[in-house]
Amino acid sequence: MTQPRNAMNMPQQPDCLVALHDVGHEPVGVVHAIRPSALGGLEALVGEKAARFALQAGFVARYGQVLGLPDADGNITTAVLGVPEAADGAEPFVFGVLPDSLPSGLWRISAPEDVAAADMALGFCLGAYRMPAFGRDVAPKPPRARLVVDAAGAAAGPVAQCINLARSLINTPPNLMGPDELARAAQMALEPLGAEVSVIRGARLEQDFPTVFHVGMGSERAPCVVVARWSGSTAREDAPLLSLVGKGVCFDTGGYDLKPPSSMLRMKKDMGGAAIMLALARLVVLRDLPVRLELRLGCVENSVSGRAMRPSDVVRTRAGLTVEVGNTDAEGRLVLCDLLHAACEHDPALLVDAATLTGAARVALGPDMPALFSNSDETALALEAAGHACGDPLWRLPLWPGYRKWLRSPVADLNNISSKPMAGAITAALFLENFVKTDVRWVHIDTYGWNDSDRPGRPEGGESLGLRAAYVGMLKIFNLDETNAPLKKQL
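Request: output the structure for the sequence above.
Response:
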């Protein structure tokens, strides 16, 4: 088997986008994005013959419906695409059907005025994504459609690149993506952009991050913690500190509380939180936002061995609290708790963590809606609004104090699981809250990190649910836009 193409070896702009000034004399086709309510105006867009052809062919502007319209010579240089009504909110993903639905060559999109050029370009790029190939005899892909963009559309390129970075990391087979490989991915994604990245291992890891060490000590692939720091080129010493934390469990067997085979099949995605936070950190750096940035990733494998943690173990955390291991398959919160406490030691203006933490969040909200927890109503509202505005929704669940007593232990300060079989996402977040300073604005995103099936712009496999919502919400909270100026428009 060949080694995977490195997920970080990619330009800042996806190759499916072509800048307007680089087009030259190559012909450019046009895709007309049409809403069902505007179908009556089809003739004005494409002409009488083409409109008649489209209607006879069954074009009704259904979501994601694409139809090429042949000219007099039988060439397809015009197409139509069905898109949602304006009332349905931001929807970049529908444009993800185009890369595989159009003939190869250059294309541009003509859409209603209220559809942002960046959304069209983002959706196109997300649909053009391909999972990394690992086979020796993988056939080369034929030339595909590329999208011509102006400056507004090009702004979506780095966003798509970072989303696809997270996807590729999650999609990498677990034998090729262990703790060391994840740490190296962080270095390769951030160091060339000027970030300082250190990797903590061995005796220092056991001392500084004892719960991360405890989770990972059962694996032949030793655990480590990535710590990255960066400051924007215009960031002053008092610039806001953004701290990001990600759960990087590269494979999760469940430990001695072993998962059944059906639940273990997708556990390569259990490092999805780390992949998403790494991608978000890279996006902040690419945009050169006027902030100070810290990133912490707990990179471990939860394995079964003679050295693995056991149910009823008691481990002392970085914060000094002791935790009884009620279930070795609730390892993610043990990975996060030391990282969160370390982040709070620097008093960040905003602390965001992401993790594929609980099945309970998926039972409550399904695969497409990450659960959002926060100790700040204002911060939670900003992220919820951001998620709605950019088509990356989050749904807030409460840090309900009445359930804290469910985490009591007779032998330690806390148990890592609840004594009740209910509200599992909430009790997991309440566990983490014990390691966050009360005066630090904190957001916890319990995400799925996966698409179960192919949909427009969302291919089956790893996904970065919550990344764009966190990014746009952070801009709102810090009163920034992507050109380092005050926000021009309220969410």
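The chain is about 30% helix and 20% strand.
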